[in-house]
Design a protein that fits this description.
The structure is a homodimer of 279-residue chains. Chain A is α/β, with parallel strands linked by helices. The first copy, chain A, has two domains: 50 residues, Spermidine synthase, tetramerisation domain (Spermidine Synthase, Chain: A, domain 2, Roll); 221 residues, Vaccinia Virus protein VP39 (Rossmann fold). Chain A is 29% helix and 32% strand. Chain A is built from nine helices and twelve strands. In chain A, the strands form two sheets. Chain A has a seven-stranded mixed beta sheet, with helices on both faces. In chain A, a hairpin with a 2-residue loop joins β4 and β5. The N and C termini of chain A lie far apart (52 Å). β2 of chain A pairs antiparallel with β2 of chain B.
Chain lengths: 279, 279
Amino acid sequence: MPFWYDETWEGKTRYGCLVRETLYSEKSEFQQIEILDTAHYGPVLVLDGIFMTSAREEHFYHEMLVQPAMAVAPRVANVLIIGGGDGGTAREVLRHPEVERVTLVEIDAKVIEASKRFLPMIGTAWDDPRLELIVGDGIAYVGREDLQLFDVILLDGCDPVGPSAGLFDLAFYQSCAARLAGDGVFATQTESPILLREVFLDIQRTLRQAFGRVTPYFGPAPLYASDQWSWTICSAGVDPLAIHEERAARVEPAMKYYNREIHRAAFALSQDLKRALDD
Amino acid sequence: MPFWYDETWEGKTRYGCLVRETLYSEKSEFQQIEILDTAHYGPVLVLDGIFMTSAREEHFYHEMLVQPAMAVAPRVANVLIIGGGDGGTAREVLRHPEVERVTLVEIDAKVIEASKRFLPMIGTAWDDPRLELIVGDGIAYVGREDLQLFDVILLDGCDPVGPSAGLFDLAFYQSCAARLAGDGVFATQTESPILLREVFLDIQRTLRQAFGRVTPYFGPAPLYASDQWSWTICSAGVDPLAIHEERAARVEPAMKYYNREIHRAAFALSQDLKRALDD
């Protein structure tokens, strides 16, 4: 029997999907993992009751987390992904032939297992020989002082609750900054600037303490809270609009949302956010 | 007792608001009208079960329907609004001191009555002497051959069902084009380009048969289906990016979302839509 599965926000609004079948449901050491076959989105990954990604609409989130950073980083040979257990972020990075090595550090082996089995349309690059998979704590990983430097670091975590809470701390952002090559680029999802406006602004303030240049950008993410999503590019001083035209153009034929025009447009700030961020 | 009120899309997804109280519920000659006091959005206008506008988030929709057209129209003295019974569109138009006359043609007197009573924070310009209110059928109105020409025509209707269905017909768009001054500008909401992608593309194709230059643009509309909304500027040939800087700058202090940077960015096309619209 089909049933409704709702994600409720502070008991005030809810967004629901009609589920045809529960494909997977297991409690890992870290969280409740579910994969639901929904009527609209196809298979959807749910962690602790929150919709994470879907077969139908994952490209908005993954293209927008990855491609802007890849388009403006001076070098992209050596990339670190923290989180990203569904494989979509790695897939987007590995589209670039200049990438030599991707290290993906995901805390929950069961998310990877379930995604490989039920979301193969998202993680299409698991077998790429440039990808090294580490099951472990991303916070401890970037804290290692013997660690190499990265050209690009991508943070693909959940909301600031549960196993992902530490991924929004200043200390963690500072570790990421320390692991970046001098002109390296860090990008992360930074929640909804409308429904979660205060959370979004808090994250911006924290990021500004860890990085020299912090610039949010915006786009749709249909599976998430009903409005708009944000990501943020951080670095010592790389211009987030200085696109390497050739590198960006090379991946555009494979894109469904991102292109150079979208890249430039995504950084426009609403009047409300312009006022809030100038304070 | 608070209760959930859900808008369901094709039986596959739903978006719900917790309602503290039903403020108004009446069946007019045209539709079921409800005004619900919701926990998140404050008062919300609902027509035939579809969320229309809310005290909290109406500015995204109204600013984006009105201000881009007002920023690029060569003249804005004489403006026609079709629909817009909540008063938000008229309020945005009347911010401009160059506006001499606004004619608002709303088919349902009860929408105006209920909005005046329960949504006074949206319709703040009802008493402006430049506003002329006509209760009547917008389709018949623009079909009148003795009608004056307008500098700007704004179509603020519902989805292409119920009393608004005729507002998506070629014949109606052709009447609007005929009622525009030579370099006048027409703007309308054109549904979600993601959830209602095929509807959006159909509307674009129809508009292209009626106007010389048709350009969609995009932004968030939190109360609507969970992703992104679109509006479209149409004219004989006015450049939708040729902003009258002074006119746009004058209203920016009153804006919550729109500004000139957002205006330019809103026209960026995703890879998917670029491919679909070039066909």
